[in-house]
Amino acid sequence: MQDETGRVRVLTDDPEELERETLRKQAEDLARLLDSAIRIPGTPIRIGLDPILGLIPGIGDALATLIGSYILFLGSRLQVPKIVLARMGLNMVLNGVIGLIPGVGDLFSFWFHSNARNAHLLRRYSSTAPQPGTESDWIFVMGVLLIALTAVGGAMVGFLWLVARIWQFVT
Fold first, then answer.
1. Which of 76, 80, 132, 164 has the fewest CB atoms within 10 Å around its CB?
2. Res 151 pLDDT > 50
3. What residue segments make up the domains of the chain, in order of their start?
């Protein structure tokens, strides 16, 4: 049930469900911080830390991806299906890799809102009865995270290599 602010309220005394709702809220709060925490004065446009961090050359996008990956860990804790975790990981990779392109990447982060998408997926697929997490779930999540961070790191290395080559050509 939603209250007047649009937030979901849990009408249960079940401690397990209350904990699950707390984890969902953590994901939504982090997504809000990363994607839409700041309203641009005089406009309805909102921006978060993700595109702002993306302005830091070299490490900004990797840092934003690392922070946003916490939502993926929450998804694993809430036992969302593996395919949903993969989709969430793909959102992170897409945002991180495209985010490395100067200017275009920041605009993409501003438009795409990967963290909000992931928080929405987490809420949608964690509302059903949870299935017990297994060791393979954790291995899967760690694998997706490793692939995401490797893709972002590889794109960063490629970008720095390109800048070095251009610098050599110019000088």
1. 132
2. yes
3. 15-170
